[in-house]
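**Protein record**
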Amino acid sequence: MTKKSTAATSTSRPKRSRALVVGVAVATVVLVLGAVYVAGYLLAGDRAPRNASVGGVPIGGLPREEAVATLEEQLAPRADAPITLSAGDTVEELLPEEVGLSIDSAASVEESGAGRSWDPTQIWQVLTGGSEREPVTRVDEARVAEAVAAFAEGADGEPEDATLAYEGTEVQVEEASTGVTVDQQATVEQLVEAYPRSTTVEATAEVTQPDVTTEEAEQVAEEVAEPAVSAPVEVEAGDAGTFEVSPESIAAATTFEVAEGGYVARYDAEKLLEGNEEAVEELDTTRAKDAYWTLEGGTPELVEAVDGTSVGADALLEAVRPVLTTSGSERKASVELTEKKAEFTTEDAEKAKVTEVTGEFTTRFPVANGGEYRNTNLGQVAKRIDGYWLAPGETFSMNGVVGERSAENGFVDGYVIQGGVLKKESGGGVSQGATTIFNAAFFAGLEDVEHHPHTLYFPRYPPGREATVYYGSLDLRFKNDTPYGVVIEADRVPGSGSKQGSLTVKIWSTPVYDEIRSPDPEKSDFTSGRRLESDDPECEYQAPIQGFTADFHRAFIQDGKEVKRENYTWTYDPGDEIVCE
């Protein structure tokens, strides 16, 4: 048997033919696009595309130069407009030109499609007739960064709480401010991105709020501060009477502090009492009196302290505080009197015992030939300082104790030194009192706080170791730097005719050192003045006075040894001889 086979026959396009077709099509497209691209290049001329506009300013069909001029003119207001940059409470205007920002009109016209270019974007603008474009900007990033840095320097800062305080009795609230930290790089980018479309830019910054806002401070002012000083507070002090606590004293004793995120009032009890001290002293209370030492018949005697009653600082605040936010008839309070201890007790005075004279000095003065004024003026000095008590640690001031040397205070005219010339003035001769007091305190070993020798030397005083005073400028002060009290004794013996007067000052205390030594001063560097003639009707003859330098010291002796030394030096001016014509 014979087998037959049948072959099936089929037809198909070869792959090479298909690829060829595709290649031809692509080539055709490329050729067409290339032709269009070349056509776009050739079509481009010196004019802007017909539909072109930049930043909303139409320039379609305008020659390049005219288009540039049009943009420069119409975009100028926008290009030069100040940019308001803000961060927190800081706001600043930046001028674009000054910070390195401007519009490049020529580049903007070119980008709109004017002129031949192989740039596909520009070819597309030509082929499509142009469109709306944003202006091309010029950016000097270094200058922009510099401007932002300067802005940040003024804007950056910690948050500040609102402040609340009294000015007199007026309530003052200072507004709070936020804390700001400017991100300078991000802000530079914001400015560049915003220009010239926007004239307001909020800087990228971290803003921190204050703990106490202006509104919170104003609320405390309205509810607490203002009512507290709205009127006096009437205070009843039992049988001692009544007095008023003034708004001024309340304001002076009040401060406002931040606590728990808000303002609270803090009161100073001592200041509140101090501000009403005069009113409290008018109450019918027993005055506390300090202990002190005095002289009776030339013998020191202790005067014991006396305790009293008064209004205590804490008690006054406790009574007044609850009614500070009230008004009208409700502003009333009552306070109980408290025991008022003497500040310097009897026990203190016993420890600061006064036993003997520790320093003494006497000066003499003539009264003949117009010197009678010394009797009066030195008598006034002696009267004011005699019996004066100086507790340990206290400082004596002659100007403070004697007071102004005026006619109203009992002083008369006498000679004083003014500009190297002796002239008459109320209180002349009081410096002799200062010299006497100074030397008594000097030999008592008390601390020399302030003394001023004369500019001219007078033989009745020890060279260098003397003192002058002038009310309001020159004072004599010494401090009781011992643990014992000091009582000053002063005795003026008046002179008459040819008999000289004298002033003796004694310092009573208890010795700290065995002895205070001060040898006679050494004189050197002598000088002489001039001989002057004067036709002044009030001229008075002045004898020549020699100038020189005086050196001396004060030695503190204990157990036969010098334990401390203080050195002094003073140069006297020469005094001119004045002859009256």
